[in-house]
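Issue: ligand-bound run for thiamine diphosphate - logging full I/O for the record.

Environment: standard queue, default settings, no custom constraints.

Inputs:
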Amino acid sequence: MNVNMEKSAYENFKDISQDEHIAPGTALCSGCGGLLALRLALKVLGENVVIVNAAGCFTLLSVYPFNPFRSSWMYTAMACAPAGAQGIRDALDILIKKGKVKKEDDLKVVVLTGDGTANDIGLQATSAVLQRNLDFYYLCYDNEAYSNTGFQMSSATPFGSKTNTSVPGGVNPGGTAQKKKDLFEIWRAHKPPYMATIAPSHPVDLSNKFKKAAQFKGPKLFITFAPCPSGWSFDDSKSVEISKLAVQTGIWPLKEAICGELSHTVIPKFKPVETYLVAQERYDHLFHPVKQVDVIRVIKEDIDHYWQPYLGVEPLQDQS
Amino acid sequence: MKRIRFHGRGGQGMKTASRIVGTASFLEGYIAQDCPVYGAERRGAPIQAYTRVSKNPILERGVIVHPDITIIADETLLDDRTANVFQGVYGGTITMINTHYSSAHVRERFGISGKIVTLDMTDIVLTQIGKPVLSSVAAASASKLTGMVTRQSLKEAIVRELFSVDIPKEVVKKNVEAALICFDRTPDIHIDHSEPMKEDNTFVKLEYSGPYLGTPSTYARGNTVLKKTGNWRLFKPVIDHERCSRCRACFVHCPHSCISLDTAGYPRIDYENCKGCLICLEECPKKVILKKREVREW
Ligand SMILES: Cc1ncc(C[n+]2csc(CCOP(=O)(O)OP(=O)(O)O)c2C)c(N)n1
Ligand code: SF4
Ligand code: SF4
Ligand code: SF4
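Outputs:
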């Protein structure tokens, strides 16, 4: 398999910048995993950034008259953050051409959305800008539901988990019956110059990916794992721990694709996925009052189906 | 009619508290109405919830401006202008605050009218339930203060409401125990007003203004520091700098940008804004960050 082994720009925590681009005091939940990923990403992107943020939890970062950013930020409706980014990019290009904005004052345009926006209502606007090869970044924080409005199921909600619109019981004891949409593969089909998945528990991997993306012109797309203490029901202190478990069990692959060419940046240890599931109350129904072996088996098989083409044929997760 | 207003922070359970009181009163044969109000903010932000209980049909709706009973489940809201916890408190209000301070201290500090009751509910839930969820205990105190709800109906209402949101049996049991302790420790005082406050029904009419005026713009950089979210904290992370190896794990993983490094490379916590998530404590490989229960002075 193709594992990325070239020497990296970031090697350890000492390489991570001490500059903060999001001030403390935001309205986001204590322990928000997505916020940590954004904070780390902005440390690499720097200050010359304009964020285009579609409605969701992160639009509460800036609530009038408060603003945590050192850079610019604009709010858009759910469906149209990429269209907003197109407008800003075009405006900047024209102003630079006319000499009204200096080239060194140019801004990186960054779309920031939740998974609901990215997978559902904002998908076609994204597809359109990918096809137009817009020069921008997209950071989707995947908290696997519509969190801001009370944790309803999105098409990124994982099979077997509980949301407030896929409550386990009756005909659906397993909770969410649908499988998580593979947004990475949908985006990859457009063959953008750079795309990657990241996780807040892997700050060095995350930083290297943003650093690497900077050399490409065109769409640079990121999906971050975003542990959500309120929606997934776990203690605020466990966000990073749960993110580590997601990577180590193989349920959240860390990868990148350059012009559609895929490689993994971390090979998981394939810890039993139960260690990940039991850490969150949104999977409680799979273990209490009786263990739902069938549902858990499907989750394991899906991890195997994902990894086997890259790693071989042996089952990676104990299927018992 | 009794009007009860709950104040807490998102995640503490005030919405459920208002429902439990509604259900308990309903079980006693009263007509009840309950609803929460929260702005577009997340866990930790100030929220309110209302319960109205009456012998007769309730025609009133919406915000309770003049409460007969106010439950302030989080003492850090007392000084928070946006939470406005004493709004509309009058001679007939019983104000109940979750704090270790006495009611005399509250009276001296805030000079509010009506009666004041205090009880350290957080202490009770931490011992009985092990988690800072205040829904059942806040409901218990409110129920007692109405003088309309018995222990039995309270118990039944807690079981019903918590089961309906899938709380496991053991946890429901602990909630009932904690609630009954609170019920018993809440004094049996009532104010029976022959003339209850009338809610005013004035409407604020907002004129249309164009997008240049109507769209808010903020030009300040990073002014959320002024929000001082340090008062969200229940436990405080404290670094033992003597044993710290300066590995930076805590600094790197704080989601809220509350850890910086001093010139010698030691981590320093911004307590004015640290929300107390304790990710730093979890991630410290040396285990040299300790947690301390916040006991606030005011
Ligand atoms: C077109 C439209 N429909 C519905 C809403 C209401 N709304 C605001 S935020 C939100 C949830 C967004 O979910 P997601 O993109 O997953 O972000 P999260 O809330 O998880 O941060 C919804 C439905 C809206 N703003 N616009
Ligand atoms: S609900 Fe989840 S994603 Fe939204 S701010 Fe809270 S922790 Fe973050
Ligand atoms: S408790 Fe949370 S917010 Fe406070 S310093 Fe530690 S990681 Fe940061
Ligand atoms: S994680 Fe622990 S050892 Fe490392 S810098 Fe922070 S306090 Fe020191």
